[in-house]
Structures are given as structure tokens and as C-alpha cells.
């Protein structure tokens, strides 16, 4: 049984060729949540989660230039603006954005309001149509048009509940390439300013989450963190942007898809395309903790080398190979 409950669903069509004019073909009614519609929404939702290269953000404050937020607010607060009316208003705005992008092409625009796992969101996708083949009732081969869901390139999601709760980021969209990402981000009215420090911290959290889920032995966890630290440090030093796929390849080369699945999780919401903040990757190599009367920081590898030894039976931590200068300082303190 699907976890996605379709509250509203509609499809409209954009007619446009590269460098050509834009026209709309608006549906006259919403789509009923039939089994076929449910399968399509489930498939698109899953594909969207799996797609790499998403941008995340919030609504632009200029609602005159970026009116989607105002449209949704009126729909939620004004009973006269139903979902059908909202979708038509959105299509008019999308037409305006497409007219500013000569190379963009048309397709079928599917807009769905979906409730799943406690969330309430709007899903936008633009799909093209491709020719396939089928066997007809006489078992002859015939042409068959179908929606090219496998080639999903233009899509976005607005988490309505997160938006209403004042969460920092509640919009996501496929970055795609060039003008595609630009016009669709502009259509959504998404400000996707990426703060490198926060994104790097979330990436480190994702790596830690993966290590916990896989129940990695200490040595394998150290190797994972060390490879990730080295790679991210090199990118940060060279001011090169990072992608989750690249991190997975470098940090967990034997099974990168396992790690990427965790980093791609929507709950984590890690953006691609930011330059790693070298301050934020320090926890991958360094263990840092404190108690009311002391603070402690050491390389994670020290626990494996024996330089730091933790005895869980009596809760003691032993530091070995104390430097001479520290030894003198400690002796001075104990004599006073």
C-alpha cells in the first residue's frame, strides 16, 4: 500500500519549441486518484528522492516578482481559490518564466498535493512524451506514446508544513543544467543561497549516520572518515565545489551507492555545489569532548594506536606518551 495520499492532482500542457512562442493547454478539471494516477505519483515521488543535484531554499521575499508564495497562501486561506484555480494561476506564471528562456521546451506539467509520513507537500514535474511500442489486442506491434518519467529533469517540491512552521528551508528542486534550473527556480521563487559551513556540517553528520547505520567496526569507520576528510580538505583548499556522489565515491569506494543513499536522504537535505568549509570537517579526524572540569581533544586514530586508552569497566581514560613539556607542567601543578 502506498504511503503517498493524493489530496489533489492535475496536469496541464505547455506547447513550446526552442526559440519559439509559449502557449498553454489547461485541463478543465482535476485528475481523480485512480490506481494509475497513484502509481504515477508514487513513481515520480521516488524518482525525485533518488535524483542527485538538488538545490534547497526558501521563498524569495519579493512576492510581486516571485508570486508563487502569495498564490499558495491565498489557496490555503481563501476557500474561493481552490486547487484547480491555484494550478491555473501557477501555469500563467510558468508561461511568463518560459518566455524568458529561449532554449526551454514544453511538456506536461503535473502538479500534485501529496500527504505522506506526516508531511504535506506540493510536487511539480514537467514531463515529455516519447514513442514506445506495445502489443495490441491482436498481438500485433503498435506504437504507443507514454510519459518519459525515467528522464525526469525538471521537478520541484514545496513542503507546505515546513513553510508554515517557519523552517529555514522548505523548497527543493532539481538543479539540472543551465537555463533549465534557472527558469524553474525562478518560477518557484526559491532563494537557494547555500551556506557552506552549514552544508559541510550536515555532510559530516550524514557520514556519521552512515557509519552508525552500517554498524562499522572502529577501524573501518576511521578509514571512512579519514578518506572523506582528505578529499573534502583538498576541495576546500582548492575552493572546488563538492557533490554527494563524489563524496560517496571517494569515502566509500567499494560500495559508493550505499553511502550516497544516506547522503541523498531528503531528511538530511544536503545541497550539491558548495565548497567544503575546512573548519567543519575537523570532527572527521578529531574527537572532541568536555566535562564540567576538563576538555579533551585528540585524533580518532589515537584510540587505535594506544596513545589514548579508554577502559569502559572503570570509566577511565589513559593518555600515553605525554610530551616532556606537559609532564613538567603537570608535575608543577601537582606539587603546588
UniProtKB/TrEMBL annotation:
<comment type="similarity">
    <text>Belongs to the YejK family.</text>
</comment>
<protein>
    <submittedName>
        <fullName>Nucleoid-associated protein</fullName>
    </submittedName>
</protein>
<dbReference type="Pfam" id="PF04245">
    <property type="entry name" value="NA37"/>
</dbReference>
<dbReference type="GO" id="GO:0005737">
    <property type="term" value="C:cytoplasm"/>
</dbReference>
<keyword id="KW-0963">Cytoplasm</keyword>
<dbReference type="InterPro" id="IPR007358">
    <property type="entry name" value="Nucleoid_associated_NdpA"/>
</dbReference>
<dbReference type="GO" id="GO:0009295">
    <property type="term" value="C:nucleoid"/>
</dbReference>
Amino acid at each position: 500500500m502506498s504511503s503517498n495520499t493524493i489530496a489533489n492532482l492535475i496536469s496541464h500542457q505547455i506547447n513550446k519549441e526552442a526559440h519559439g512562442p509559449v502557449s498553454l493547454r489547461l485541463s478543465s478539471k482535476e485528475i481523480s486518484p485512480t490506481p494509475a494516477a497513484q502509481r504515477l505519483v508514487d513513481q515520480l515521488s521516488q524518482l525525485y528522492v533518488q535524483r542527485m543535484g538538488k538545490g534547497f531554499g526558501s521563498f524569495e521575499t519579493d512576492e510581486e516578482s516571485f508570486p508563487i508564495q502569495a498564490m499558495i497562501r491565498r489557496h490555503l486561506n481563501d476557500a474561493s481559490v481552490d486547487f484547480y484555480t491555484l494550478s491555473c494561476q501557477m501555469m500563467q506564471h510558468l508561461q511568463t518564466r518560459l518566455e524568458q528562456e529561449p532554449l526551454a521546451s514544453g511538456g506536461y506539467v503535473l502538479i500534485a498535493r501529496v500527504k505522506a509520513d506526516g508531511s504535506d507537500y506540493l510536487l511539480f514535474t514537467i514531463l515529455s512524451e516519447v514513442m514506445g511500442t506495445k502489443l495490441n489486442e491482436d498481438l500485433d506491434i503498435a506504437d504507443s506514446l507514454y510519459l518519459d518519467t525515467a528522464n525526469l529533469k525538471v521537478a520541484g517540491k514545496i513542503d507546505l508544513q515546513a513553510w508554515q512552521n517557519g523552517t529555514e528551508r522548505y523548497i527543493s528542486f532539481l538543479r539540472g543544467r543551465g537555463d533549465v534550473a534557472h527558469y524553474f527556480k525562478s518560477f518557484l521563487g526559491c532563494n537557494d543561497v547555500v551556506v557552506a559551513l552549514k552544508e559541510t556540517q550536515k555532510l559530516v553528520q550524514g557520514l556519521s549516520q552512515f557509519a552508525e547505520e552500517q554498524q562499522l567496526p572502529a577501524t573501518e569507520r576511521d578509514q571512512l572518515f579519514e578518506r572523506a576528510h582528505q578529499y573534502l580538505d583538498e576541495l576546500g583548499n582548492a575552493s572546488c565545489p563538492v557533490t554527494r556522489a563524489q563524496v560517496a565515491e571517494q569515502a566509500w569506494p567499494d560500495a559508493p551507492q550505499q553511502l550516497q543513499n544516506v547522503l541523498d536522504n531528503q531528511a538530511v537535505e544536503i545541497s550539491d555545489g558548495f565548497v567544503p568549509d575546512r573548519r567543519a570537517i575537523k570532527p572527521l579526524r578529531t574527537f572532541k569532548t568536555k566535562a564540567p572540569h576538563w576538555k579533551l581533544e585528540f585524533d580518532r586514530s589515537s584510540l587505535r594506536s594506544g596513545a589514548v586508552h579508554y577502559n569502559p569497566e572503570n570509566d577511565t581514560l589513559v593518555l600515553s606518551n605525554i610530551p616532556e613539556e606537559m609532564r613538567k607542567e603537570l608535575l608543577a601543578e601537582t606539587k603546588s
